[in-house]
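User: Reviewer 2 asked us to show a designed sequence for the structure in our supplementary figure. I'm pasting the structure tokens here. Could you produce the per-position amino acids so we can include them in the response letter?
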């Protein structure tokens, strides 16, 4: 899940601890073209304040109307199923494209202990499954795997939650600033490691968090996992290769290094001489980014993040040039 949905749960926890009534909506099924995928969430506070999204806007308006016109009784069942877009006319009314249909759970949140536990486990970089019993409203949290997906059989909703995707940048130069800014817009947690104090000036906390130490130490200290991408951007092999030796043997879903094709081939040879296995070396992305004819730092950052997001989303890299040109 995206951290935008974790932010929904953070608000649910805050509102419930303040004694306010909250209804949590989750997309459980879609047919046709729907604006949000299953798992998307919206929380509705008793005064009509909302956070999150389940559609393009019109469904949200109707959910608020349900609150104000009494269609959400205080003594009603803990969970209800709501369907929008059954007819083409209704789909048009609620802004669902191509006659799309979506089904939501309408869940009145009682004891928020499960919300606090789920958020704490995600902060600890765990992937968690939340099972919601539609008949009783009971919530059970269980460990989950990265390959698990949301499921709904009409009786139980099993949704998957996980920590934010992270991007560790080795190097705090000009390119890293563009990458960090774009990555935060894409909802990545940005981490920076650069032992060269000359490059630290001008970095504000909102652009990313500095990880102290040398690059190889940083890769270990952040407890790199399957939701972490690591990119070496210093152009200094003493720093970049130090990070890569550790990163390529980690669980990071993406490891890349800035450099031309010639330098990328040399780097692979150097990593082999340093004892890295061929299997690990094959994981290295370099040159980094999709081929979009990029030249400026902003264009290179865009190319890099397009590649990282494509891999995160399981999309084939169709615009990636081969490292070795065919003869």
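Assistant: Here is a per-position design you can include in the supplement:
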């Amino acid at each position: 899940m995206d951290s935008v949905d974790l932010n929904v749960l953070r608000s649910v926890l805050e509102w419930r601890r303040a004694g306010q009534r909250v209804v949590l909506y989750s997309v459980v099924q879609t047919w046709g073209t729907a604006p949000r995928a299953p798992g998307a969430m919206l929380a509705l506070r008793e005064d009509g304040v909302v956070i999150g999204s389940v559609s393009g806007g019109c469904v949200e308006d109707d959910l608020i109307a349900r609150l104000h016109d009494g269609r959400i009784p205080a003594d009603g069942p803990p969970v209800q199923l709501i369907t929008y877009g059954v007819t083409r006319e209704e789909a048009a009314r609620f802004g669902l494209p191509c006659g799309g249909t979506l089904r939501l759970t309408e869940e009145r949140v009682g004891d928020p202990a499960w919300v606090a536990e789920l958020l704490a486990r995600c902060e600890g970089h765990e992937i968690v499954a939340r099972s919601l019993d539609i008949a009783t409203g009971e919530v059970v949290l269980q460990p989950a795997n990265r390959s698990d997906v949301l499921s709904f059989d009409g009786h139980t909703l099993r949704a998957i939650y996980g920590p934010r995707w992270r991007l560790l940048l080795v190097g705090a130069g000009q390119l890293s600033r563009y990458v960090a800014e774009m990555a935060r817009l894409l909802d990545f947690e940005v981490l920076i490691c650069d032992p060269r104090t000359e490059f630290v000036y001008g970095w504000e906390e909102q652009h990313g968090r500095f990880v102290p130490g040398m690059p190889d130490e940083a890769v270990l200290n952040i407890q790199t996992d399957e939701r972490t991408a690591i990119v070496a951007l210093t152009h200094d092999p003493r720093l970049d290769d130090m990070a890569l030796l550790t990163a390529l043997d980690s669980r990071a879903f993406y490891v890349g290094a800035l450099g031309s094709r010639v330098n990328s081939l040399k780097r692979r040879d150097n990593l082999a001489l340093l004892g890295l296995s061929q299997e690990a070396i094959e994981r290295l992305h370099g040159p980094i980014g999709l081929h979009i004819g990029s030249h400026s730092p902003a264009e290179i950052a865009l190319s890099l993040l397009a590649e990282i997001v494509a891999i995160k989303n399981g999309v084939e890299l169709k615009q990636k040039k081969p490292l070795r040109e065919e003869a």
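For the response letter, you might also mention the following. DSSP finds ten helices and 15 strands in the chain. The chain has two domains: 3-161, 166-312.
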